[in-house]
């Protein structure tokens, strides 16, 4: 799934938690898709990710915090997963951090955007390393 290019510099927040866990845009996208699809497999199909990667991400999120982020119901008709109240709070906190960070950095990001060479074409695709989810 190709993301559209932003028209200005922006922040992508990746929280590195003191217990070794993390939470970032990919986790948020998965949670939102599970909310929409009501299943991990449905979310994996919609995002174009393997079921295993999505399941491992859900497992890691649920083990990172004292309360589960996503409740799973194997074999349940009408959906196999839903966001817990704590998961909803986690999403709200993350979005708040993202919003505050973006607002704080707006002037600096605008200055960086003005300094860009719009003719720049990357010669090689930047591949982000996979996070160890196990």
Give structural attributes.
4 helices, WH_DNA-bd_sf, mainly alpha, Arc Repressor Mutant, subunit A, 134 residues, Putative transcriptional regulator, ModE family
Please give a quick description of this structure.
With 134 residues, the chain is mainly alpha-helical. It has four helices and four strands.
The Cα radius of gyration reads 17 Å
* SS strand fraction: 5-15%
Flag low-confidence runs.
Answer: none
Q: Would you report the number of β strands?
A: 4
Helical residue percent? Answer: 40-55%
Major β-sheet profile: 2 strands, antiparallel
* CATH fold assignment: Arc Repressor Mutant, subunit A
Question: What is the helix/strand order?
Answer: EEHHHEEH
Count structural domains: 1
Shape: globular
CATH architecture: Orthogonal Bundle
Mean of residue pLDDT values: 88
The largest beta-sheet arranges its strands as: 1-2
CATH superfamily: Winged helix-like DNA-binding domain superfamily/Winged helix DNA-binding domain
Broad CATH class: Mainly Alpha
Alpha carbon gap, first and last residue: 24 Å
General description of the model:
The chain is mainly alpha-helical and 134 residues long. The longest helix is centred in the C-terminal third of the chain and has 30 residues, at 85-114. α1 (25-37) crosses α2 and α2 (40-47) crosses α3. It has one domain (16-114): Winged helix-like DNA-binding domain superfamily/Winged helix DNA-binding domain (Arc Repressor Mutant, subunit A). Helix content is 49%, strand content 7%. The strands form two sheets. The protein has a two-stranded antiparallel ribbon with strand order 1-2.
């Amino acid at each position: 799934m190709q993301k559209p290019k932003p028209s200005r510099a922006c922040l992508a927040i990746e929280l590195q938690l003191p217990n070794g866990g993390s939470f970032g845009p990919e986790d948020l996208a998965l949670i939102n898709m599970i909310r929409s699809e009501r299943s991990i497999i449905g979310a994996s199909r919609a995002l174009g990710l393997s079921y295993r990667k999505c399941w491992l991400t859900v497992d890691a999120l649920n083990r990172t915090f004292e309360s589960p982020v996503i409740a799973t119901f194997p074999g349940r008709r009408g959906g196999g997963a839903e966001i817990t109240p704590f998961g909803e709070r986690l999403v709200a906190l993350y979005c708040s951090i993202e919003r505050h960070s973006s607002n704080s950095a707006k002037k600096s990001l605008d200055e960086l955007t003005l300094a860009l060479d719009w003719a720049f074409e990357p010669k090689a695709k930047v591949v982000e390393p996979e996070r160890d989810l196990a």
